[in-house]
Write a structure and sequence with these properties.
It is a multi-pass membrane protein. By secondary structure, this protein is an all-alpha fold. 73% of the residues lie in helices and 1% in strands.
């Protein structure tokens, strides 16, 4: 009888084990490496103007100016997938907006920066309308036409733009309380504007807008099916990109203290596009590396062969793209990943 009862009574269930505690998220080494590089660059950027000669400080300032222009071009080409050969025109519009306000209106130079950004935002928004129906080489030709057309237009309105002679201005003087020299003050102005715009773009790309731009770049049809409004984001991408190029033009006016139509030919637009491709499309540090390329490589080519600097420049460009097909930022990223793998093996 006892055996029958034992056969009927089910065995006692084992107590359930407590749920496993999820492992804490492991930070990816690449993220830590990127933040370490950023912190190092910030330290170097703050110390450099006190350790270098004035001419070297001027060169670093121009690298920051070009990096700011390439930041906008990277937003348009690298993240939104739209090609532009007219960013030299936006650069010129921002420069002339600042110069005209300083020369004819005697405006404070800091006030010319938001004015230049606002004007170029409007121009870029208007240029974004043709981008709704054009893409690829057709869009590149339309934007390049703007860069070609702008130079004779600036020469025509001589009473405002100074014509072919341009406008000569005075540089912003540093406040007495800073204790900085003129070149150092201009450097920190350029650094502050570039850093602020870089942080704004970084936050933008990590928002819903950034995801929409990436979807637009990867596949327009799929992005539209997912609910991305192509017309809205294409025009906004052009407007934001032009606005950053206009900001770079305004800072360039402060640094150079001179504007002339011949300084903003179509060659500048081509150089900017080449700079962002060499720096690294869609990368974080691509605009900074591209700015250094735009400033130093033409000078290097001129020093190697004064008779044909364009040939030397072309050869250097081909060599860089052969060694780093994803840009200098991609080459640095591969080197960093290789260093991390070596560290893990040890």
């Amino acid at each position: 009888m006892t055996e029958r009862i034992l056969d009927v009574v089910p065995p006692r269930a084992e107590p359930a084990s407590p749920p496993a505690t999820p492992a804490p998220p492991v930070r990816y080494p690449r993220v830590r490496l990127r933040w370490a590089i950023t912190a190092l660059l910030v330290v170097v950027a703050c110390v450099a103007p006190f350790q270098l000669a004035p001419f070297r400080v001027f060169q670093l300032t121009m690298v920051l100016v070009y990096a700011l222009a390439l930041l906008g071009l990277n937003l348009l080409v690298g993240h939104a997938g739209q090609i532009s050969l007219g960013h030299g025109a936006f650069f010129a519009i921002g420069a002339y907006t600042s110069a005209v306000m300083l020369e004819h209106w005697d405006a404070p130079y800091l006030l010319t920066l938001p004015a230049a950004m606002l004007v170029t935002f409007g121009v870029g928004f208007g240029l974004g309308v043709p981008a709704l129906r054009l893409r690829g080489l057709y869009l590149a030709l339309v934007t390049m036409t703007i860069a070609i057309f702008l130079v004779p237009l600036l020469k025509r309105f001589e009473s405002v733009t100074g014509g072919s002679m341009g406008l000569t201005l005075s540089r912003p003087r540093p406040p007495a309380w800073t204790g900085l020299a003129e070149d150092q003050w201009l450097y920190f102005l350029a650094l502050a504007v570039t850093a602020a715009c870089g942080v704004a773009v970084w936050c933008l790309l990590r928002s819903r807008v950034g995801r929409a731009l990436h979807a637009l770049r990867d596949n327009e049809t799929a992005a539209e099916v997912m609910g991305v409004r192509l017309s809205r984001y294409k025009t906004l991408a052009f407007a934001w990109s032009a606005m950053l190029a206009g900001a770079a033009g305004a800072v360039n006016t402060w640094v150079i203290a001179f504007v002339s139509p011949d300084s903003f030919t179509a060659t500048l637009s081509i150089m900017l596009l080449a700079g962002i491709v060499v720096g690294g499309l869609g990368s974080t540090f691509g605009p900074l590396l591209g700015g250094a390329f735009v400033l130093f490589v033409p000078t290097l080519a001129q020093g190697v062969n004064q008779a044909a600097p364009g040939v030397v420049f072309g050869v250097l460009l081909i060599l860089i793209m052969y060694v780093a097909p994803t840009g200098l930022a991609g080459l640095a990223g591969r080197a960093g990943r290789f260093a991390i793998q070596l560290r893990r093996k040890k």
